[in-house]
């Protein structure tokens, strides 16, 4: 049976593939449920140090399933309850990404539109192929991308986000890198290897330290300056008290590889 979100483990790196190419990997109800289940399992899997998220077929993700959304209007309330539930479930899945202990890298090709662009913005890192297009283009059909806006406006400058949201215009991979939506742009044929190289670099680091740092990174971003320093200092204390951190520091002093458990 074909799974909507396929999981392949390559050593300590987990590869998740959105596997609905016929719908450009739209975030249908079933796709959101499958992603949630995968993230819940990965959050408990200490054997995985890095997660790569990609899409099967011609695109990364085209956003919500519009046909499914239209069908949701059939309720007596015209779809209000269904839409409220849909956007709540989607927001929950997006928030699971920064909450995961492992760094999540989006491997992006084709298009990443609306909630698909939100998915890229929600990932910790992103590598995209030349020719990839990004957009929060719901305004073109009368639906302002308010929930994608939350993730987008936190990773790109406000005026860039607002222009994308109000014009519905797409940006290419080069512009996406320029404004901070993605980290790297590579030739299409090098996308998989470039993402793998980045994932392997992260996987070589002390996993416990990266997990502590990732959580602290997002927590402090929501704080004022003084509170952020206080929080980050407390996290560094916890990090320094790890056995493997003590070993890593000593190994550096002694100019040898660390003996991490």
Going across the major beta sheet, what is the strand order? Answer: 1-2-3-4-6-9
Shape: globular
Strand count, sense and closure of the main sheet? 6 strands, mixed
Counting H and I runs of at least 4 residues, what is the number of helices?
A: 11
Oligomeric state of the chains present here: single chain
Q: Gap between N and C termini, in Å?
A: 38 Å
Strand content: 5-15%
Strand tally, please? 9
Per the CATH scheme, the topology name of the largest domain is 2-enoyl-CoA Hydratase, Chain A, domain 1
Brief descriptors of the model:
6-stranded mixed sheet, 11 helices, alpha/beta, Lyase 2-enoyl-coa Hydratase, Chain  A, domain 2, globular, 49% helix, 3-stranded mixed sheet, 2-enoyl-CoA Hydratase, Chain A, domain 1, 2 domains, 261 residues
Description:
This protein is of the alpha/beta class. It has two domains: 5-203, 2-enoyl-CoA Hydratase, Chain A, domain 1, CATH 3.90.226.10; 207-253, Lyase 2-enoyl-coa Hydratase, Chain  A, domain 2. The protein is built from eleven helices and nine strands. The chain has helices at residues 29-44, 66-71, 80-99, 115-122, 146-152, 158-167, 173-179, 191-203, 207-221, 225-240, 243-253; strands at 5-10, 13-18, 50-55, 104-108, 111-113, 125-129, 133-135, 171-172, 184-186. A six-stranded mixed sheet has the order 1-2-3-4-6-9, with helices on both faces. A hairpin with a 2-residue loop joins strand 1 (5-10) and strand 2. Helix 1 runs parallel beside helix 3, helix 4 (115-122) runs parallel beside helix 5 and helix 9 runs antiparallel to helix 10. The longest helix is centred in the middle third of the chain and has 20 residues, at 80-99. The mean pLDDT is 96.
